[in-house]
Every structure is written in structure tokens, then in C-alpha cells.
Design a protein that fits this description.
binds flavin-adenine dinucleotide, 24% strand, FAD/NAD(P)-binding domain, 262 residues, globular, Arc Repressor Mutant, 13 strands, 6-stranded mixed sheet, alpha/beta, single chain
Length: 262
């Protein structure tokens, strides 16, 4: 039994599990189909290229393929996705970039209250522990480590110089006043290691909060309803079908690409 049952321990599910369980008066259960995501392939930023390959031995990646597309002569396109605690934040390119202000404002204009840029900005700031420090757009006391891209090669500066010479504007902060321009990315990396959602939000609290239960290799098959209320979640683990009743809410955070019946 848990107050909140979260399906999928990826970028969104991991954050929600960590934030909800800050309240000691609620119980939270996080169910993740993949494993704990402890491989050095995950924590080593440079191993990203190996993780996204379509290797059969790669159990950290769902290795999806799209349906055949007529526009592509019936070809299927390979689509990697993280299958581990931390989800795709355990295998992504680590570039720290938000949606553009106009994207959020468009959502709000369509009637989605609370999704305008000025509504979501406080949450971006709350999330960040940005090497840049604190300002109007950034926070420095959140769990998510964001570091400056290193200017390791002269070609980076040469590229920016060439672009600004052609009248493109230099932009020192793509997550600041404007996204337009040329500059150096920031990355979700800390001390040379991937700052995944697992590393930033789950590792500091798993096993330390009695109200947070995290189950891995736990693949959800079904949400049980009584009337129009979700009351339990069925999942398989170690070859057994298990059920966890839910008191308050079932949160579906299995990713945008995966099929519900996968
Ligand atoms: C190769 C790659 C590179 C990327 N590069 C960047 C980048 O540089 N910068 C950036 O900002 N974004 C990048 N992204 C995108 C970003 O990582 C995703 O948008 C984000 O992680 C999605 O979060 P999510 O919570 O929606 O899904 P995910 O993080 O994918 O989490 C979904 C989780 O649910 C689990 N799950 C699914 N079904 C079930 C089930 N039935 N039962 C239990 N668990 C289940 C999955 O195993 C997974 O762990 C990249 C993504 C990929 C794949």
C-alpha cells in the first residue's frame, strides 16, 4: 500500500518520487521496469555513444523502432530510450537546455493554465544547482547539477568568433533571456560524472527515507480501477505478478514513446 504509486522511474518519475517523499506524512512507491542504472556506462559521460547503440546485450536501453513510415520508403527508425532508474536521463546527451519561452507561452495560450514561461521558471530555478550561480533565470541550491561546457579545444572559440563575424549574435546563456545565438552549452554533469535524475534526486534519498519504496525490474502491466478511480497497480517482478494498492494517486511517467502495453 502507498499513497502515491509512480509508474516509471525516469527523468519525471524520479523527480516526482523524490519531491513527494520530502513530506514524511505520505508514502511513495516508485516502480521501474529497468534495473538500478549503476553501470559505469551510465555515470561516464563519454560512454553515451555506446549506450545509445542498438546492441542486443544493452539492457539499459529499450532499443525501440518506429513503425514503417511511408514517407521513408517503409523504413523503420531506431529510437533509443533509457531502461533503468533515471530513465533516459541515464543515457541522454546531457545538454542542459529548456524549451523556449514562446513554446511555454503558446501552451498557456491554448488554455493550459500554469504552463506559461513565467509559471514554470520558478521550478527550473528550484531544480538547478547551476555552476553559473543564482540569477533571474537560474538557481544554485537545487538537486540538479548543471555545469559549464569546457572550452577544451580552440575550435570552439574559433567557431563562435566566425559565427559572430557573420552577424550571428553571441549568446552566453541559452537558458537565459533568449535562446537565439551562438555559444557554449551547459551540461548535466558533476565532477566529470553524469548528473542523471537518479544521481541527483534518487541516490541522496533512497534507503534514507522510510516513506519511499523503490522497486526495480518491476514492469507495470495494468492500473486497476474502481469506477473512475485508480486503486491499484499490477506489475511483474522476479517472474511473479504483484499488486500494490494505492490510496491517493497513480502517476504515469513511463515516457512519451513507450507503448502502454509494452
Ligand atoms: C539518446 C538520447 C539523447 C538525449 N539527449 C538529450 C539532451 O542532451 N538534453 C536533454 O535535455 N534531453 C535529451 N534527451 C531527452 C531526455 O532524456 C528525455 O526527454 C527525458 O529523459 C524523458 O523523461 P521521461 O520521464 O518522460 O521518460 P524517461 O526518462 O525515458 O523515463 C521513463 C521510465 O519509465 C520506465 N517504464 C516505461 N514503461 C514502464 C512500465 N510499464 N513499468 C515500469 N517502468 C516503465 C522506463 O524504463 C524509463 O525508466 C535525450 C534522449 C535520448 C534517448
Amino acid at each position: 500500500m502507498a499513497d502515491y504509486v509512480i509508474i516509471g522511474g525516469g527523468s519525471s518519475g524520479g523527480v516526482i518520487a523524490s519531491r513527494l517523499s520530502e513530506d514524511p506524512d505520505v508514502t511513495v512507491c516508485l516502480l521501474e521496469a529497468g534495473g538500478p542504472g549503476t553501470s559505469p556506462l551510465v555515470s561516464t559521460p563519454g560512454a553515451f555513444a555506446a549506450l545509445i547503440q542498438d546492441y542486443r546485450i544493452n539492457t539499459l536501453n529499450w532499443r525501440f523502432n518506429t513503425d514503417p513510415s511511408k514517407a521513408l520508403n517503409d523504413r523503420r527508425l531506431y529510437n533509443p530510450r533509457g531502461k533503468m532508474l533515471g530513465g533516459s536521463s541515464g543515457m541522454n546527451g546531457m545538454v542542459y537546455i529548456r524549451g523556449d519561452r514562446s513554446d511555454f507561452d503558446h501552451w498557456a495560450e491554448l488554455g493550459n493554465d500554469g504552463w506559461g514561461y513565467n509559471d514554470v521558471l520558478p521550478y527550473f530555478r528550484k531544480a538547478e544547482n547551476n555552476e553559473r550561480g543564482e540569477d533571474e533565470f537560474h538557481g544554485s541550491s537545487g538537486p540538479l547539477h548543471v555545469s559549464n561546457g569546457k572550452r577544451e579545444f580552440d575550435v570552439y572559440d574559433a567557431f563562435i568568433e566566425a559565427a559572430t563575424g557573420l552577424d550571428h549574435q553571441a549568446n552566453p546563456d541559452f537558458n537565459g533571456a533568449s535562446q537565439e545565438g551562438v555559444g557554449i552549452y551547459q551540461f548535466t554533469v558533476k565532477d566529470g560524472k553524469r548528473a542523471s535524475v537518479k544521481a541527483c534526486y534518487l541516490d541522496p534519498v533512497m534507503g534514507r527515507r522510510g516513506n519511499l519504496r523503490v522497486e526495480v525490474h518491476a514492469r507495470v502491466h495494468r492500473i486497476r480501477f474502481e469506477g473512475n478511480r485508480a486503486v491499484a497497480v499490477e506489475y511483474s517482478q522476479d517472474g511473479q505478478l504483484k499488486t500494490i494498492p494505492c490510496e491517493k494517486e497513480v502517476i504515469v511517467s513511463g515516457g512519451a514513446i513507450i507503448r502502454p502495453n509494452c
